[in-house]
Design goal:
The structure is a single chain. The protein has two domains: 2-8 and 193-341, 3-Layer(aba) Sandwich (Peroxisomal Thiolase, Chain A, domain 1); 11-190, 3-Layer(aba) Sandwich (Peroxisomal Thiolase, Chain A, domain 1). Helix content is 33%, strand content 23%. The protein is built from twelve helices and 14 strands. α3 packs across α4 (105-113).
Length: 342
Amino acid sequence: MMTSAIGRRRTAIAGLAYATPERRVSTDEVEDRIRSESGRLPVPPGALKAVSGIGHRYMVGPTEYSSTLAIQAGCRALEDAGLSPSDIDLLIFASASQDQIEPATAHIVAAAMGVHAPAFDVKNACNSFIDGMRVAEAMIETGQARHVLVVSGETPTLATRWKVGSIRELRRSFIGYTMGDLGAAMVLSPADDGRGIFYRRFWSGSQHWEIMELPGGGSRHPRGEEYAYAQGDGNRLRDAFMGLDPDIVLSVFSETGTTWADFALVCAHQVTMPFVDDLVRKLGIPRELLELTIGDFGNVSSGSIPLMLARARDAGRVAPGDRVLCIGLGAGISVATMALIL
């Protein structure tokens, strides 16, 4: 566990954006594809939407990659910040997805964007982006960078198992039917006007690493179609998170002297709508503080927090000076809590 109430130097969001693939797919279409490739649908039609609360999501096409989405979002974030590629001192590709094993996808993104600064990847499942923010803050606070561009290109739908032979196999592959693809980006810069990150706490329960996984491509399973799909036990993952001490997140209030009423927005990672309901009950989150994206975008992995923040800002729900609480949840498992002032 690592925790800190107030850092020596504030790091603030200077630019923010997201990007979607061209193709928008309904959950009915997801069921149609399972039925087409499997010869049948092992559950009643409409069951996936009823269980997940997801109506639509975006999915990449043949010429869209993790880097493609990251580049689009990164260019928009730079424009939002009023900066050029030459202003960036560090580029971090923070995503559960990637273009290939080597080199780091950050280099592919940097080359396409014309960023000539150092670049590297950060990966921690659905907490990849918030961990990228954590690294960016450290680099800024220690004077190693002034403007850091954190980008993500999530393409988890490419790891979806469409051909299933039984209800058991469908359940094991269920996480893939909740996923959506997304690009997200954030420019982080130093601020001396009170804006920025003022609290961060990170926790891991790594004994749960086998609950949800995408095993292919590494040294354990370098090849083989069987390992190319996301798989796991959703009930065990839910139980692992719901069994955690709520103080892992709620200590933000005692350590900063705040309450829910002091925050204008809560960006909590969203896996399914029932999981959101569980989290609301577990932590006592006032539901009106949430920005809900799960129904229209699905589970976009580490892109969820920047997506929620960007949509809330664009809709006028938050403005400069507002406090935002970010709650990240990732397979592995890990929990990230970060509070900031816009």
